[in-house]
Design goal:
The protein is mainly alpha-helical and about 190 residues long. Helices cover about 65% and strands about 0% of the residues. α1 packs parallel to α3 and α5 packs parallel to α7. It starts with a helix and ends with a helix.
Length: about 190
């Protein structure tokens, strides 16, 4: 929690290089800090997340020792930087997909969090809930007009290919005479 970023990064690096588990309880305690600083961030929580992510374990990393509800709560932290990094450190699992979709992080107020949610879904296993959420974005101009978000949406949709295409086709009102035209426009926007 040092105010100087240089010292925080050195501490994080040294803890990861040391690779000892004796600091895990203190790092998990740091994750419980819900405050934000004058810049609207909480760098201590972010560094604790990435330190746990970098510490080796028998299988994976030490983030698996963080209570699930605590990691989930970080997805709704007041600091956008914490939400973004909590997304980027999620394991590739159906539980993570459920957390992302239930917290509606694809519609977060911060564009960096939206981008992290899309890129995290791109690394997740195929899941109908993710595909449904991604297909819903096809009708939202902010995702189709922003080149970065559109590229991230394309990456995430590719991971969810079969379910995404099914959901995208069903997301358009098929009773509308312009349904075919709307579908074509939405898919053209992804190009």
């Amino acid at each position: 929690k040092h105010p100087n970023r240089l010292w925080r990064r050195h501490a994080q690096r040294l803890l990861v290089e040391r690779a000892q588990s004796d600091v895990i309880p203190q790092l998990i305690e740091l994750l419980e800090d819900s405050t934000v600083d004058e810049t609207g961030n909480n760098a201590g929580v972010t560094h604790a997340l990435w330190t746990l992510h970098g510490l080796p374990a028998a299988a994976g990393n030490r983030l698996q020792e963080v209570p699930a509800e605590l990691h989930r709560s970080l997805l709704t932290h007041a600091a956008a930087g914490v939400r973004r990094n909590a997304l980027l450190t999620l394991p590739a699992s159906s539980q993570s997909i459920e957390w992302i979709t239930s917290a509606d992080l694809l519609h977060d107020a911060d564009a960096q969090v939206q981008l992290a949610a899309l890129l995290t879904l791109a690394d997740m296993p195929a899941d109908p809930r993710a595909a449904e959420a991604l297909a819903g974005l096809l009708s939202e101009s902010q995702f189709l007009q922003d080149h970065t978000l559109k590229d991230a949406l394309t990456c995430a949709a590719a991971t969810q290919a079969r379910s995404f295409l099914t959901a995208a086709l069903h997301s358009v009102d098929n009773t509308s005479p312009a349904a075919g035209e709307e579908r074509g426009s939405a898919f053209d926007a992804l190009e």
